[in-house]
Task: inverse folding
């Protein structure tokens, strides 16, 4: 029988809570030995790896035939071998690693479950505040028991827009050019430092919208479902499903204006 999204969410919530406790406990030791990954600006710590290991071991114990795509360990079976009906889990063991290293209270554990290529359940938990956002496909988006509906702002000039930058210098130059033209058209920009928390903030209306180019699947999977289930459009630049290029999350009434402004600002797909 097909697995229920709520069953996958329950497992995800349990593992993310445990991983968040571990990340909190390991912070002091982890920041003492930060390494860098893709570029000198891209940090990774022992806590990223320990959090990933805890979640993958928990998945292996509960669902040994599943697959995981984790930021630190890549794509692999959680156990000895993948089953034909494997669920694919998308895991960011610490989203917002730079905030984690600096002690800025905006870093999260993010875990989503994908069935037949569709994300059906997701959870994002802020390690410091304990705020937790969840969604199942068709079941709405929730933060700590409160249902989320996104922002009601419709005018771009009143929109507080979240964004983020990857770690590569050339991409940052391009993004700075886009911001140069977009910033005068909107209320303001927030660069919170965790794409997962940005997407949850947009789901909740703490941001009116969010865009970022170059996100990875583990950054956007859980937060994207939470945004969609809060009624936002979660797309690529031209309305296609969000992919590895531009990701846009905005309420339907704001999405066209943000789309047009991004195009006018020279954003790449
Ligand atoms: C990063 C954060 C950041 C975003 C980057 C991501 P990490 O994830 O989500 O806000 O701008 O694109 O790579 O490296 O902290 O897991």
Result:
């Amino acid at each position: 029988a097909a697995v229920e999204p709520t069953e996958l969410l329950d497992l995800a919530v349990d593992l993310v809570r445990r991983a968040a406790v571990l990340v909190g406990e390991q912070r002091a030791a982890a920041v003492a030995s930060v390494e860098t990954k893709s570029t000198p600006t891209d940090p990774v710590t022992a806590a990223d790896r320990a959090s990933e290991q805890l979640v993958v071991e928990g998945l292996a114990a509960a669902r040994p035939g599943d697959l995981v795509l984790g930021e630190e360990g890549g794509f692999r079976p959680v156990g000895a071998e993948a089953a034909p009906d494997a669920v694919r889990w998308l895991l960011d063991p610490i989203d917002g690693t730079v905030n984690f290293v600096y002690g800025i209270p905006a870093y999260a554990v993010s875990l989503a479950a994908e069935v037949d290529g569709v994300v059906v359940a997701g959870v994002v938990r802020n390690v410091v505040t304990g705020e937790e956002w969840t969604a199942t496909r068709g079941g709405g988006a929730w933060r700590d028991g409160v249902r989320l509906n996104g922002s009601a702002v419709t005018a771009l000039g009143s929109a507080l827009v979240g964004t983020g930058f990857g770690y590569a210098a050339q991409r940052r130059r391009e993004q700075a050019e886009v911001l140069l033209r977009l910033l005068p058209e909107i209320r303001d920009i927030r660069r919170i430092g965790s794409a997962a928390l940005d997407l949850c903030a947009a789901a909740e209306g703490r941001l009116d919208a969010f865009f970022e180019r170059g996100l990875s699947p583990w950054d956007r999977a859980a937060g994207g479902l939470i945004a969609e289930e809060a009624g936002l459009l979660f797309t690529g630049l031209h309305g296609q499903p969000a992919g590895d290029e531009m990701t846009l999350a905005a309420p339907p009434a704001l999405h066209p204006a943000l789309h047009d402004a991004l195009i006018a600002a020279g954003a790449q797909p």
